[in-house]
Amino acid sequence: MAHIPDGVLSFPVLVGGGALAAGAVALGLKKIGDEDIPRTAILSAGFFALSLFALPVGPSSVHLLLGGLMGIVLGTAIFPAVCVALLLQAVMFGFGGLTTLGVNILNIALPGAIIGSLVAPLIYRATPARAALIAGVASALCVGLTGLMVAAALALSSADYMLSARVMIATYIPLMLIEGFVGGFCISFVKRVKPELLAGAA
Amino acid sequence: MITRILATLALLALSAWPAQAHRLKLFATLENGTISGYAFFVGGGRAQEADLRIKDESGREIAQLTTDKSGAYSFKATQAQTYHLVANTGDGHIADATIDKGRFSGASAVISEANDDSNDTSANATTTAQIERAVDAAVARQLRPLMEAYEAAESRTRFNDIMGGIGMIIGLAGLALWSSGRRKAKP
Hints:
The complex is a heterodimer of chains A (202) and B (187). Helices cover 71% and strands 4% of the residues of chain A. Chain A has helices at 11-31, 37-50, 67-74, 78-93, 101-125, 128-157, 165-193, and strands at 54-57, 60-63. Chain A has a two-stranded antiparallel sheet. In chain A, helix 4 packs antiparallel against helix 5 (101-125) and helix 6 (128-157) runs antiparallel to helix 7 (165-193). Chain B has helices spanning 2-15, 104-111, 113-119, 123-154, 159-185, and strands at 24-31, 34-41, 51-55, 61-66, 72-76, 83-88, 94-99.
């Protein structure tokens, strides 16, 4: 779903996405401090491994995106984290293309970066239960935004790849629920065990 | 810290063990002049009711089909030419497959079945065509499971690859830490 393969998107969409993603990754790298490197790497590895696993849902199949979770913990460092993981997935497994790398990075990381940066200060101050709720809603929202961005990238490229609203709803709504639970659970766990992990992006 | 990172990674790797990957693929084969196959997710079921378009060599669309409940489709090829198939699930999964013109060399006899009797004047030619057709059908029937297994195996996510990717990410993090350490040590 979020791994758009080569040869699907039109040239302007690829170039636009590539340029924006390059800028975002550069910005993310610039703002990474020494103490951010290990958690960026851990979440990048987690995203790399977990988003390889898909479950059949309805007429299609879904996998975790973790955009909300990464955005909350990493802030703008989500861009290099997603960039490295997607590059490895494309090269090693053919998940998503190399030419579409920029667009795919934006689709997954941009909602996470924006929503994550917005809610991270709230989560930092909240109780674990509240933090879980906020993180869950934020994670679900990120999945929805990623879906909309994928739809926009495909619709801008060619009328051939018209998306079916029915399939989108049937696959993204369950995924939003799953991601909401995963995001909420992870953040409440971190909040109780190692709350200082959430201080960086806040 | 290091042990904790390693423990996390080991957990991740273990969770990754029953390797299932996420990618739409399109299986297509040619049997008796009929292109058939199915759209499937690597390790994650079939693409039901996906849109399937068939194009000829020049990129002109000749047919638009929908896969059934088990992701399957079939299409009767009318000419010996290269067919290009594109499957689209409607949520951003797109896959393609090509049936090459060369695959039709024997099957062309099958396609023009109706004309066979009128065209072939000698009994000898008919027999040759019949044998060719029978061999073609038999080979296609026997090859199909092999091709299906190959398609499935080709893009299977392997444990070693996942570990390799995670190792690469750790390496990058190490490199970043090392270079920032050097920067700090200099002044």
